[in-house]
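Subject: Sanity check before I submit

Could someone independently write out the structure tokens for this chain? I want to compare against mine line by line before I put it in a report. The sequence has 317 residues.
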Amino acid sequence: MKFVRYERNGALRLGAIDGDSVIDLLDAASGGISTKLLAAFADMNRLIAAGTEGIKAAEAAVRTAAAATRTPLAKAKLLAPLTPSLILCSGENYWDHREEKPAVTRKDPEFFLKTGIGVIGPGDDIIRDERVTKKLDYETELLIVIGKAGRHIPAARALDHIYGYSVINDVTARDRQVMLRPDGSSVYNLGPGKNFDTCAPIGPALVTADEVPDPQNLQLKTWVNGELRQSNTTAKMIWTCAQLVEFFSTFVTLQPGVVIATGTPGGTAWGTDEELGGKKPMRKDVVTAKGYLRPGDEVVCEIGGIGRLKNRVVAAT
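---
Independent answer below. Compare away.
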């Protein structure tokens, strides 16, 4: 299923996408549903924790949904499908992204954190604040949502712990993230480079894992003002979704609702920024960025089977 959170008359509601409609889960719930599932239909984290039982109950509600429970998808004000307090992130996970910027040698996935304070939803504005950065960049990534708790999860069983997937734009302040030394080597500062208001658009939906037969076979694209800037596939990840779940669960117990951003491919604006060690890519299938994001730009992040996440860049007031 494709679950969403949306705003109705000023209230946050949970829904399921059915064709070109959003079905309100609470309104569509049958009279015999348990108190536990009613609570799950009002809170995304509880719905995730309800696992297969919650998905089946939602499927039953959608099958019998009356017309009054439906809102046209085009008119629904979608919110981020979930608001994690913290986002576990893995960078350096596509070779073509590594090749467009200063060289980094590592044997394990890159591990950094992004605050949930920066989460926004589809259609919300990305704020470009020059007091934070003059080099605001886009990064389309597949987002893993954990559904079953676990620690030291082996990769062979990792997909059993995944509830579903979404799209995240790992918006980055490049001039905060990286500094070049005189010898050409670089220093990374992933705290300030990755954490600021509106740095984590997520959406449009949370797609349950049963609808994604192979998370390593998804097309990933980014458009800026209609120009195709990134085009790749999750098959090109260096570390797979299963391997990333194994890696992060080494350090922390992954609970339902925990999310993992899986890295972005090449085609970022950083790749054209010689001041920060960018190495201009030579590709004919995408448009090479002529600079970083500016107010008025529209960014569309798309992952096949998951959805399209659209946000506009605005200047800070």
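---
OP: Matches mine. For the report I'm noting this point. The mean pLDDT is 95.
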